[in-house]
What does this fold into?
Amino acid sequence: MKKPVVPVTVGGTVSQLVRKMGGTAFQGRNLARGVDIWSSMLEADVTIFMGLAGAMIPAGMRQVMVYLIEKRLIDCLVSTGANLFHDLHETLGRPHYQGSADADDRQLAKSKTYRIYDVLASEEEFDSTEQFVTDFSQRLDPDHAYTTREFFFLLGSELAREGGEDGILSAAARANVPIYCPAIGDSVYGTGLATALVKRGRHVVFDVIADIVEMVHIACAAGSTGVIYIGGGTPKNFIQQVALCGHLFDKVLKGHEYAIQVTTDSPQWGGLSGCTFDEARSWRKVTPDAATVTVHCDATIALPLMVSAVAERVGKTLPERKKPSFRLDRDLTVL
Amino acid sequence: MKKPVVPVTVGGTVSQLVRKMGGTAFQGRNLARGVDIWSSMLEADVTIFMGLAGAMIPAGMRQVMVYLIEKRLIDCLVSTGANLFHDLHETLGRPHYQGSADADDRQLAKSKTYRIYDVLASEEEFDSTEQFVTDFSQRLDPDHAYTTREFFFLLGSELAREGGEDGILSAAARANVPIYCPAIGDSVYGTGLATALVKRGRHVVFDVIADIVEMVHIACAAGSTGVIYIGGGTPKNFIQQVALCGHLFDKVLKGHEYAIQVTTDSPQWGGLSGCTFDEARSWRKVTPDAATVTVHCDATIALPLMVSAVAERVGKTLPERKKPSFRLDRDLTVL
Amino acid sequence: MKKPVVPVTVGGTVSQLVRKMGGTAFQGRNLARGVDIWSSMLEADVTIFMGLAGAMIPAGMRQVMVYLIEKRLIDCLVSTGANLFHDLHETLGRPHYQGSADADDRQLAKSKTYRIYDVLASEEEFDSTEQFVTDFSQRLDPDHAYTTREFFFLLGSELAREGGEDGILSAAARANVPIYCPAIGDSVYGTGLATALVKRGRHVVFDVIADIVEMVHIACAAGSTGVIYIGGGTPKNFIQQVALCGHLFDKVLKGHEYAIQVTTDSPQWGGLSGCTFDEARSWRKVTPDAATVTVHCDATIALPLMVSAVAERVGKTLPERKKPSFRLDRDLTVL
Amino acid sequence: MKKPVVPVTVGGTVSQLVRKMGGTAFQGRNLARGVDIWSSMLEADVTIFMGLAGAMIPAGMRQVMVYLIEKRLIDCLVSTGANLFHDLHETLGRPHYQGSADADDRQLAKSKTYRIYDVLASEEEFDSTEQFVTDFSQRLDPDHAYTTREFFFLLGSELAREGGEDGILSAAARANVPIYCPAIGDSVYGTGLATALVKRGRHVVFDVIADIVEMVHIACAAGSTGVIYIGGGTPKNFIQQVALCGHLFDKVLKGHEYAIQVTTDSPQWGGLSGCTFDEARSWRKVTPDAATVTVHCDATIALPLMVSAVAERVGKTLPERKKPSFRLDRDLTVL
It folds into this structure.
């Protein structure tokens, strides 16, 4: 009981303000700890998996994500399908719109406007992007079972060739950051491909099991792994379970050594999304002495703050991060 | 402002007590409304999709789910992989255990015990069930891309043949209630099959897009659809998106006409799991005048209560529910 | 890890269903534990303090509270002013009304209708009850500093003399269950008395410190104390702090030995309302080995359930509870 | 649907980053709106009431509060007793300490250490501060019924005379910012005064009703009022109810015209702490067209951010804020 709480003072740069929160308590202290852990991961050149759930792209987090990819503040992204669809949507020049959470939804339905809390989207514009997905699928090999990484790499590469401002998919293709999507059917990618299946008799078959094998391969190739979860859902669990699968490559994975989650869920509901990293310790998904923190905060506040603080802190001093040590190709499973 | 709040009095049967909550307010009133809507669905013979997320089987909800399937209080189940794995686990005679949320997780890790909030599981026993999944996969056709429904029907049928007390999978196979799992890779099914892929060179390829087509087919074949969501996650969205896909079969789906969700999430975080059914109206996922309710309550309280109340209410008066009007087979997509 | 989770089955009486939840997990198990602890308190004849926060009377919990008082399932009530005002309001024959959480509030304002989530109240009717408070105050002694217990005892006695169906105040006056209100100014009692002060030059002075002394006296006179918190707020803390004040009467209070809270708050925000009973142990507000449980659930569901289950369980077997061992009068402080 | 979401980019000053959040969604957008509304209040010279609940001082928010008072970013403070006690504690040179939410509470109890989530306090040091309160009370007039404002003004003045770094109480006394505490008995002020009552036969009688009258007087004297709520509890309601009491001074108060709340509560539980400002509109506590926002975020993150952004934004351009237009003395009620 020797370390006093140091009342935060007003002002300073973003990084300084966050650092001062580190001397306080509750979620402010946790936010600061998140920045510390992230910075430590970068300094130690840990392979960083990020899980991304929630409607983060409609909520304006797309350029933060692009930054993370381009600056290599993460090494591998696992996302819901929705976020990757919304990214595609914006890359194709179709924005999301600022609306109100109190909108008249029956009226919105009449005007063919979708609502995502206080964000709106045009049904017609969404349909065009879905159509793009359907069309894109026809350019893929009907006889190949794709990992979702392959699918998004091909899609991102095509978008990158088109030029324009990078989004998540194109930036990741350029930077060779793999993207996985464990529930790809649960999104407009799914419904766009369902249209391909029914109306054109040709769709994309995904080898969702091979996704797991690749992820485990990345973890086995890494000296050390860390995780950052924005929300829970399938991305979080999909990354967590990797730590249990070293036996695929006859290795013992000791668990993630760094772990940050930003969540609005709580442990008492018993679900994986809100569970503590202590619980994860019982599974050996994280190591006994992992550096962990849960930041209970809406990611639209916490993510820009944390990334701005990390960027400010490591920006000048950090050497360019090493290239990732993993290589992924179709023959991965016989490596 | 003509209808007074009627203070709830102590006592009565479960159904009576819940009905009395209907005269009160806040989530008690919503719980009662959930029972009303569910009962209405049964009386109107609506096709009912249930989404099941959260660790509901470790939390003791397995027999409630079996009841729902056997009594046909639901027609189609969409679940996380975890719940279906935990069901398999218990069907194979391996229990979950009562523990404490305050357990020493480092100690649990040493004793190879997994914790799920206040529930424990044996790592060894989990491994045995995972092994069962790996082995089961070797009995499937390596040249067929399975829908998750096919996979779980085959697995459930095998379990049903073994006899013993029914679980979700076996009961559903017997009752011909289809089960979908949009993120099957995100569970021990996924890791068990990854082992099959790496160690035995033969796994299961899932056609996750065909899942969508089947679900839309079911909705198109129904006169009217209703939804019940226990938690959010992929099951909720996977069922919601069906309402937008009538065009696959050249139909206009008007949206789900009944909708219940039991959730511990909140709308202000902007995610699909916690969003209101009003938001769903803007998408026409539910009809403008759908009967909807969100019950903000842990499902371990709300689900046994609601099902017991529904059972008590409709038990004696309801004629046996009609057989489902949909037929699912491998040729579905050419129907 | 010897005790398996026992899946809950559908049906049974309220008490049986809750007991079955006790074999499950998460908040269902906690709810069952709450009933167990409450029953234990009754069997051990513990002095039970209940804290009541939240708009529980508009939400239809008034008759449950009356039942608790009449059947002596609690011994002392600490409440927000609002609940006690709403009780008075209903005792005077003015109901709360069922409304909708989605109402048009600007329109409600125009029609002089107050909204409390999905409950409505008439501004005019509220004004009449406020007027009653103002008038009542003129019948009190302007030269006496009242404890809030005295005030509510006098008010409840007057209401009891009027006859009619009992509410909280009249039932408590009859049953000699003391009621405390640590923030009485923060309610229509406060504003009604402010009117008395400004417009009639004569109001009521409360000795809010003497309230504390009385509460500590009750705790010191009890062999053992237990607490039940419906929500947090001032009632919870006001009861908790009693355990730290034995020195007032030169006693060592060891802390509450039984503790139940029903809350929708969470520990991670750092406030007293959502904090754990473990945290309370560090303060010795509860004993090291106290029987404690937090039920994370809306009280409009949990309270009728728990009380119905307790009533069913102890109803037939329990001898009439002993009279409380404390005596309160104006000379308390010189006892 | 004309205004696109503008993805936030990494970096900038605190104010710039928050402003960029304003182009996004969910709570990030709300946080930015909170800064906008606060800035508008300052520019329009509105009388600003702040409500402060939660353990904000142990959580390191004391210097932010001092800043708000000294720079006159608020005009009147309503607080829980705990925050004002913790402020006194630190002013007397006794810190709170950084701890862990996972501490062993039984061990803490043995070492006489109190825990407030992840903050610790020494029981002995708390006792010393409580003793200070008891002693201070003996220097007050036993025949006067004090408003809590008077009490804290006298206490703050004494502290200010002692010199040293200012805390909330001393800064407010210097700056003539009134402080109210509607539940003063519910804190160590209460227990310290209870000791005075029992052990020294002389305590402090508070006129908690006069507090209301003064608050209404301030509102009536203001051209326009705004509110900022950090948490809910009694401070929020105590300020809200002022808007309904213009009749005390034969005025019609139209309601607060600006309203910000930072909360971790949610509307669906029906309580006043989590209710929307729309609900407040039905009561005319806020005007129909008030500028309002609820920021769902832990205040340990939101408050330093918002205040730093406000300070940065208005710091250079704003003329010194006018002195408050109200005057408070013992004869207030006959003004």
